[in-house]
Amino acid sequence: MKVSLFITCLGDVFYPDVGKDVVEILERYGCEIDFPEKQTCCGQPAYNSGYHTDTKKAAKHMIQTFDHAEYVVAPSGSCAAMLKEYPHLFKEEPEWKERAEALADKTYELTQFLYRVLGVKDTGAFLPKKATYHTSCHMTRLLGEKEAPYKLLENVEGLELKELPNKQDCCGFGGTFAVKMTPISEQMVDEKVEHVEETEAEVLIGADSGCLMNIGGRIDRKDRPVEVMHIAQVLNSKKT
Asked: What's the predicted TM-score (pTM) here?
């Protein structure tokens, strides 16, 4: 099975080790990984800000970049969901709409691909920590994936997973929302950090780098003793 890695902007710039974990996990299940070097931003910041003409330029480039792929896997529910928005973006352009649908149909977030395509429920991970999981908005509401992360985390040896109060609430990142509505975003992320603290978790786990960067940054500023980990890092954790 051939998989093309869509690393995403935040993964490329801030979380390169997450990409390495994704590759190691997928190779463990027999996937042949390629990394199309021409990939760029999926266009989500422009799309969310209403600049759909500019978004189309990025979308067309991404469609062409991943035309060859058998599967496209991303360590981000948000960015995977954006690729699935492409058919709607090109609804008035039949040729591009067809190609966009082909890309959307073969695009998956990491845990979604492991659980629903490969049938994996246990990656053999080991992490003896008390943790809580943040359910990101785009992954649950746009991508519609609510089950896969939990099924995989349930089988991480040593992991004590605590339910995050009000887990359905946004962390305040929201892409450009955090930039345009900073005071509101700050209050939202403060509330999220308070809920994390209520669980007494040592580790906050998430599947979207944007959320983790936002919540993790606030945790650091508040000097709270909570480690932030992407779910790929957790699923690739091993006994030392």
From this structure: 0.94
